[in-house]
Design goal:
This protein has 294 residues and is of the alpha+beta class. Helix content is 28%, strand content 29%. It has helices at 62-80, 85-106, 154-160, 166-171, 210-213, 218-227, 230-243; strands spanning 2-6, 12-21, 31-36, 49-57, 114-115, 117-123, 126-132, 136-141, 144-147, 191-192, 197-198, 204-208, 250-259, 271-275, 287-291. Strand 6 (117-123) and strand 7 form a beta hairpin. The chain starts with a strand and ends with a strand. Mean pLDDT is 85; it is low at 265-294.
């Protein structure tokens, strides 16, 4: 899906696309993606835009339930609060964590489920990040790709602590041990932007699950994103991950910062509501709300 929305109160707009693919090995896609860019006349437009990737974990479709719950709760809570992006994202992640725990308590077959969640909000020309787990957010600026999120995995923490080098971590077992995920403990501590990152025309930012980042190098991601439109880049990145094995679900979002077009009195885009996938029985229906380009 391709969409665009004006960054609230700024002369910038976000044009982007998100895609998710089950991959070549797994029979079920436990990832959920959401991109919300309210139309200018929508009351939610003053909250800016929101995009997220959630990568669920748990047996018998429980991971799909967890990621769907996280996506729906984060979306709903973020746009319902008249707070700063930092405060709204913190409250949204806390609410999602409680919702997953409550659901698992009522449904024993979902016990132990959880999900990563990496979310980006853009408001007043600034980017805000909230992050739990090992999905990733990057920014591509002036040809240089920078990872905005830090992987909350055992190996990544050992590298940060100086116990392992990056090369040693790649060769060591246990690299997929996640230190924190929504729904796995009563209290979580999401990594949150203390200040918004001021965006510039030409910036591109990327969200993805580890089904992409484990199979595509930073150089490959930067090259694809720099040469394609957001929609084309999503397709090309998924194709690259599939060609490299596609052993996990693959989710990606690519977003471009553009100069906002002059306002016109007519021809305003309509808001679309698109179901990503049929959720498991009892799980919420996850929607994308976005302004279609055209």
């Amino acid at each position: 899906m391709t969409a665009a929305g004006q960054a609230n109160g700024a002369s910038l707009r976000v044009a982007g696309a998100m895609r998710t693919d089950v991959g070549r090995v797994r029979s079920l896609n436990e990832d959920t993606v959401v991109f919300v860019a309210p139309a200018e006349h929508d009351p939610e437009a003053r909250r800016g835009m929101l995009a997220l990737v959630a990568d669920g974990m748990g047996g018998h479709a429980a991971g799909e339930v967890a990621s769907a719950l996280a996506a729906e709760v984060v979306r709903r809570v973020y746009f319902s609060l008249d707070k700063s992006p930092l405060e709204a994202l913190r409250a949204a992640f806390d609410a999602a964590n409680r919702a997953i725990l409550d659901y698992a308590a009522k449904h024993p077959d979902c016990a132990g489920m959880g999900t990563t969640c990496t979310a980006i909000a853009v408001r007043d020309g600034c980017l805000w990040l909230a992050h739990v787990g090992d999905s990733r957010a990057y920014i591509l600026r002036d040809g240089e790709l920078t990872q905005l999120s830090e992987d909350q995995t055992l190996h990544a923490q050992l590298v940060r602590d100086g116990v392992l080098t990056a090369e040693e971590a790649e060769r060591s077992p246990g690299g997929n041990v996640i230190l924190q995920a929504l729904g796995t403990r009563q209290e979580i501590a999401p990594a949150l932007s203390s200040e918004g990152l001021r965006l510039r025309v030409g910036d591109r930012f990327i969200l993805c699950s580890d089904g992409l980042s484990n199979l595509a190098s930073n150089d490959e991601i930067a090259d694809i994103v720099s040469r394609h439109t957001p929609s084309e880049a999503c397709g090309a990145l998924i194709a690259a991950a599939l060609a490299a094995g596609g052993y996990d679900n693959i989710s990606v979002g690519v977003f471009a910062i553009e100069r906002a077009a002059p306002k016109h009195s007519s021809g305003q885009a309509a808001t679309q509501r698109i179901t990503i996938a049929d959720p498991p029985t009892g799980a919420p229906t996850v929607k994308i709300e976005a302004i279609a380009e055209g």
